[in-house]
Amino acid sequence: MSTCVQEPVATTNTQIRELVMQAREAQAVFESFSQEQVDAIVKGIGKYVYDNAEMLARRAVDETGIGVYEDKILKNKGKARVIWNNLKDKKSRGIIGDDAESNMIFVAKPMGVVGAVTPVTNPIVTPMCNAMFALKGGNAVIFAPHPKAEKCAVVLTQAFMQVVKANGGPDHLVQTVTNGSIEATQELMKVVDVVVATGGGAMVKSAYSSGRPSFGVGAGNVPVIIDRDVNLKDAVDKIVAGASFDNGIICSHEQFVFAPEERYEETVKSFEATGKVWFTEDEGQVQKLRDVVFPGGRLNKDVVGRSAREVGAMAGIDVPATARIILLPAKGAGVEDVLAKEKLCPVVAILPYKTFKEAVDKAKANLLVEGAGHSAAVHSNNESNIRCAGTELPVSRLVVNQACALTAGGSLTNGFAPTTTLGCGSWGGNSISENLDYKHLMNVSRIGKVIADKEVPTDAEIWA
């Protein structure tokens, strides 16, 4: 009788070491590729996701069990479209520009191997975005996916490599960690050249502790202020579109609404009139939902990405299947109500305010509890109020008169860099306070020459 001897399973260190070695070999070849060759591959990656949006959305929902299939289709198409549109005319290889006034020449050079930690909430568009940015800069990329989204990462890696090979690129330019674990991800982060970490706070902190240059994200918890001078229906429709999208798992989705006190009832009715919002003033029901979303004051992972009806059922409340959002009156802002914290599900709080300054102060109180550095939204036609909110709130981006969840990460109609990784600055413990872009994943050499006919000021002129 013969016995089968199982091949030894590669240790975590062995797998990571092999992935990085292969990535370095691939990147050394890829580094010589022209701008046109690089762009053909980057475009191909985005076009693959765009063309296969439905299949990839189905895989994401089936594997992760969260989110909305139809919304993920829109997300796949939308992000692929807007990211490539932003990248297609940008120089990222060789000499990328010069400045006649300072007599400087700028030369782009790769960072090397990018380690990209990707989340369960965005298992398709985040790896796509990471790959497009990394390759745009001439780098190789290795994904470290969330274990509940590993199959999606493997499918993408295989598809992306088909694009690479079809355009004459090297083997192993895009790879993924399989049979992943926290230990494997931590090991990867220690040995790559730069880390992009999109995920929970602990993982982001681990990235910054890896000893490698890192770009991470902070928690979102978007307060949205409705000013007195806006079309209420338009504002509410945009808030509902953002807050309901993909069952509220977008980090920039609207979480807490501040409405003028004299229009509070009208605002609630406008939400209900959409046919997509379930509202209750019953304090018993509100408390049940608080307890379900924040048991012990901490976000319940089981509500993340679930539908309004599913969240209601967990609280023993029959929320209609037509409802995309549960709207709840808050007791107050900041520490006054746990509903002021980040809710990665379609539960939104609402609170009236007396003055716009009060609304800004309350929004700031929410952010200081959770979400500082990320995003806020305002619906207003008052430029002074808009600038007040932008000046006072501790956020990296203030989204004005738009659905925040759908546009804070860049759109075809605003100036935010299209991305899936939204930096939160020092407020959120991040190295950048802007949207991660391809330019963050390349080094730039500066050639400085003497400025002809430059008049050198005297000491007296300098200190005048």
Q: Helical region count?
A: 16
CATH fold field value of the largest domain: Aldehyde Dehydrogenase, Chain A, domain 1
Radius of gyration: 24 Å
Beta fraction: 15-25%
Sequence-ordered SSE layout with sheet pairings:
Layout: H1 12-30, H2 35-51, H3 53-64, H4 69-87, E1 94-99, E2 104-110, E3 113-118, H5 125-136, E4 140-145, H6 150-166, E5 174-176, H7 182-191, E6 194-197, H8 201-208, E7 214-216, E8 222-226, H9 232-244, E9 254-260, H10 264-273, E10 277-279, H11 283-293, H12 308-314, E11 325-329, E12 347-353, H13 356-369, E13 373-379, H14 383-392, E14 395-400, H15 404-407, E15 442-448, H16 459-462
Helix pairs in contact: 1-7, 2-4, 2-5, 2-6, 3-4, 4-5, 13-14
Overview of the molecule:
The chain is of the alpha/beta class. It folds into two domains: about 10-215 and about 435-445, 3-Layer(aba) Sandwich (Aldehyde Dehydrogenase, Chain A, domain 1), CATH 3.40.605.10; about 220-410, 3-Layer(aba) Sandwich (Aldehyde Dehydrogenase, Chain A, domain 2), CATH 3.40.309.10. Helix content is about 40%, strand content about 20%. The chain is built from 16 helices and 15 strands. The protein has helices spanning about 10-30, 35-50, 55-65, 70-85, 125-135, 150-165, 180-190, 200-210, 230-245, 265-275, 285-295, 310-315, 355-370, 385-390, 405, 460; strands at about 95-100, 105-110, 115-120, 140-145, 175, 195, 215, 220-225, 255-260, 275-280, 325-330, 345-355, 375-380, 395-400, 440-450. The protein has a seven-stranded parallel beta sheet with strand order 10-11-12-9-8-13-14, with helices on both faces. Strands 5-4-3-6-7 form a five-stranded parallel beta sheet, with helices on both faces. Mean pLDDT is about 95; it is low at about 1-10.
